[in-house]
Amino acid sequence: MKSFAAFLKKEFLDIARTGRLFIAVLVFVLSGMMSSAIAKLTPWMMEMFAETMEDSGFIFTNIQVDAMTSWTQFFKNLPIVLIAFVLMFSDIFTKEYKSGTLLLVLSKGLSRYKVVLAKAAVLLLMWTFGYGLCFGITYGYNAYFWDNSIVCSLFSAVTVWWLFGVWVIGLMVLFSSLVQGNTGVSLCTGGTVLLAYLLCIMPKSKVYSPAMLMDTASLLNEAVGIGAYRKAVIVAVVFLAGCIAASIPVMNRKQL
Amino acid sequence: MDALRIKNLKKSFGSRKVLCGLDLSVPEHSIFGFIGKNGAGKTTTMKAVLGLLKPDNGEIYVMGERVRFGQTGTNRHIGYLPDVPEFYPYMTPVEYLTFCGAVSGMSRSDSEMRSRELLELVGLGGECHRIKGFSRGMKQRLGIAQALLNRPGLLVCDEPTSALDPAGRKEILDILLAVREQTTVLFSTHILSDVERICTEAAFLNDGKIALQGAVAEIRNKRSKDEFVVETEKKEDAEMLVKAFNDLRRIEQNRLVLQGGEMRFFSVMQYIAENKISVQKMERMEPTLESLFLEVIK
Questions:
Q1: Cα–Cα distance, A42 to B236 (Å, whole number)
Q2: N or C terminus: fewer CB in 10 A for chain A?
Q3: How far is residue A166's CA from residue A235's CA, in Å, rounded to a whole number?
Q4: Hey, are the CB atoms on B86 and A108 less than 8 Å from each other?
Q5: Beta carbons within 10 angstroms of residue A63's beta carbon
Q6: pLDDT in tens, A137-167
């Protein structure tokens, strides 16, 4: 436990001193601010473009924005934030393979499963902290400008999207233990997400696809209840546990 | 008890056989020179000892405990210094050693005390900058400090001096000599003067097997034949001698080497006297590890 805690502490020191913590916080904060800012600026922007659009036959009248507009924008921003997160942390394992820094730590007797768990924990905590920050900022601005209570199932929608991010982290951990380079980690993670997304196209398989967790629009406007996500949540959780569990023997067999 | 014992170790990378039944035993409190040319399999052997590489066959015991691939339990007995040690560049030496201490299960006070003691030993006592700006020699010295941190029974050093300048090499060798009392040192190299300087035992790795092993003094004496050097004044005389004695090897224009024992050398001397060949120098060479190494890998 002591060696796990020491390695976990080292991971936090790593992201703090290499500037990744700062960049990640900046991305999450900006994204949180942008959701409300874009919603707030929408009427002004529409007025700006009204004349040009009128020539094309579009007429804007009485543009109304509220908390729902801002939350819709929030969920539209999240895929970009998640892509930035994956790219930023895709080398969390692989840079240690490349540089050989892990070799010395393992030669001190640290078990490999602790390396996998510590790195997975850092990713999970960073995602949860950043996501929470992003949500908190949007929630604060929305409460100031509009009324958050008009949005139904907000916390359910936020939770399922957070779970989607956690599922992606599981993929990152698995592919990081399988491949040697961070490009491979990013491509394999992206490829699996794309596959899950393609499953969403077919109505029968959609309910089982973790990519369904990204589709929060129908939850926000009460088209469906949280129960519609049950199967996708179970698949994501089982898949996540499977990814972490599989990473340990893969890491144990890895020749460094 | 042997600090390290390897039995019939085999390892191939694809169709290339690197280790073909390597047997090795390293006695406790020795400085053991593990000699082999580049690509002979020294690093492969060391990584197998650390459980970082899966051998195809064979057994490895560290302090009597069997090494298992992927499980690093036996590494608590080992301190490892790779040829080019890599550290977390954003840490200071004290931070890195304290982290290593915590990873290997040492108490905070012990690891802090030991870190300062070892940094003094390797000459990095006053260094409080981050590792990012360290030279190769400084990294090598920090590497020794981290390897010795948890008082290992076996210190495994993979070519610790090969990337260093003469001053850096001397510093590292002096440190390894100084730690002999505390631990057993297994030291791979292809720089034979380093082995002659500090090692008590040595083994030659060739064609994936140990070709020769024993105390350094014994190995020198095992040399099958004495070596004599004859230097003639004229190039033509050297050519004449080579024609007359087929075991005379020409190493320079008028410099010849004979590896045939004393009786053979007397014959050469007799031929020189009979043919009135002017000689600049005749010398009986002390057997060196270098000549022995070249003989082994021939």
A1: 99
A2: N
A3: 13
A4: no
A5: 13
A6: 999 999 998 888 888 889 999 999 999 999 9
Q: How far is CA A24 from CA A121, A123, A127, B43, in A?
A: 16, 11, 9, 39
Residue B80's DSSP bridge partners are B156
Mean residue pLDDT of chain B comes to 86
Task: Please report, to the nearest 10 degrees, the dihedral formed by the alpha carbons of residues A213, A217, A222, A227 taken in order.
Answer: -10
Tokens 């007025």 found at: A47
Cβ–Cβ < 8 Å for A252, A112: yes
The upper half-sphere exposure of residue A95, i.e. CA atoms within 13 Å in the direction of its Cβ, equals 13
Number of domains observed in the structure of chain A: 1
Q: Please answer yes or no on whether B105 and A3 come within 8 Å at the CB atom.
A: yes
Distance (Å) of CA A243 to CA A6, A160, B19 = 24, 19, 35
The proportion of chain B whose per-residue pLDDT surpasses 70, expressed as a percent, equals 95
Contact B80 A3 (CB under 8 A): no
The residue segments making up the domain with residue A111 are 2-253
In chain A, % of residues over pLDDT 70: 99
Closest to B186 measured CA to CA, from B203, B170, B172: B203
3-state secondary structure of B126: coil
Residue B270 has pLDDT above 60, yes or no: yes
Rounded to whole angstroms, the Cα distance separating B75 from B72 reads: 5
| Chain B interface, Cβ < 8 Å to A | 47, 50, 52-54, 69-73, 75-76, 78-80, 82, 84-88, 90-91, 95, 99-100, 102-105, 143, 146, 149-150
Q: Of B52, B54, B4, which is closest to residue B27 (Cα–Cα)?
A: B4
Q: Which domains are delineated in chain B? A: 2-215 (3.40.50.300), 227-297 (3.30.70)
Dig out the tokens for B50 from the structure: 């650390």
